[in-house]
Design a protein that fits this description.
The protein has 140 residues and is mainly alpha-helical. The chain has 2 domains: 1-57, Herpes Virus-1, CATH 3.30.40; 64-139. Helix content is 44%, strand content 4%. The chain has helices at 41-47, 71-92, 108-139, and strands spanning 26-28, 35-37. Strands 1-2 form a two-stranded antiparallel ribbon. A hairpin with a 6-residue loop joins strand 1 and strand 2. Helix 2 runs antiparallel to helix 3 (108-139). The structure holds zinc ion. Zinc ion is lined by residues 14, 29, 31-32, 34, 44-45, 48.
């Protein structure tokens, strides 16, 4: 189907023109995709030519070429994920502690380093991705 389906509730029946109050009372015409009350569906579809369908509008973002996963792009994202994972691991790793003792909070330095690595990973991954993507779009 290349048409946009109408929101049922609040739309007008394409056959009778009546306002559809409850979505359960209505359905979409198989031919034109417009909202139609269920009791009028067969009647409408007999005469329906498919005209009057709400065609999908082309959005700018639909016209952008898909991302090409070049090795550079994969490299950036992989490096970002790797660094971020290192940071996450650093924060997760808790110091050995004997049973029965209260959990010690992570040393601030370690926590900071963990966050720093995660942030760095995000910057490398996202920044690298955006940079590569910009280049790809510029080539168009
Ligand atoms: Zn129709």
């Amino acid at each position: 189907m290349d048409f946009e389906l109408e929101e049922l509730a609040g739309a007008s029946c394409i056959h009778s023109g009546k306002k559809i109050l409850v979505a359960a009372d209505a359905t979409h015409c198989d031919k034109c995709g417009r909202a139609v009350l269920k009791k009028h569906k067969s009647e409408h579809e007999e005469k329906c030519t498919g005209a009057g369908a709400i065609k999908r509008v082309a959005h700018d973002y639909d016209e952008e070429p898909p991302v090409t996963w070049t090795s550079t792009l994969i490299g950036f994202v992989a490096a970002g994920v790797f660094v971020a994972a290192l940071g996450g691991g650093l924060m997760m790793a808790s110091p050995e502690q004997p049973p029965g003792e209260l959990a010690k909070p992570l040393p601030t330095k370690k926590l900071g380093a963990g966050f720093g690595l995660m942030a760095l990973g995000a910057i490398v991954g996202v920044g690298g991705y955006n940079n590569e993507r910009k280049k790809q779009l510029a080539k168009k």
